[in-house]
Write a structure and sequence with these properties.
Number of domains: 1
Number of strands: 0
CATH superfamily: Metal-sensitive repressor, helix protomer
CATH topology: Methane Monooxygenase Hydroxylase, Chain G, domain 1
CATH architecture: Up-down Bundle
Radius of gyration: 19 Å
Oligomer: single chain
């Protein structure tokens, strides 16, 4: 007989409504910028213009991700949950995945 142990993944769900709205707004802006990149490619625009627009998309997405991580970390530390160390470690890994 085999015993299978499944480890529960530690995570945090951001509850700060103001931060969630700001992050969603930034992601929607990036979505619009990405649509502009597609149009530029289809229209045969020059490489410089496309790369500049792609850079703006990348910065917007990364800023949204960093904001999500930092806001989550702040909540985790303020709430002082029992699994605070595990959640902090997971958020640090997420942060490093963006660096």
């Amino acid at each position: 007989m085999w015993l299978i142990v499944v480890a529960k993944k530690v995570s945090h769900v951001l509850s700060d409504e103001e931060q969630l709205v700001a992050i969603a707004r930034r992601v929607k802006r990036a979505q619009g910028q990405l649509g502009a990149v597609v149009r530029m490619l289809e229209e045969g625009r020059n490489c410089d213009e496309i790369v500049i627009q792609m850079s703006a998309v990348s910065k917007a997405v990364n800023t949204a991700a960093f904001t999500l991580i930092s806001a989550s970390l702040k909540e985790c530390l303020i709430e002082g949950k029992n699994n605070q160390d595990e959640v902090t470690a997971q958020l640090q890994k997420l942060f490093l995945s963006l660096a």
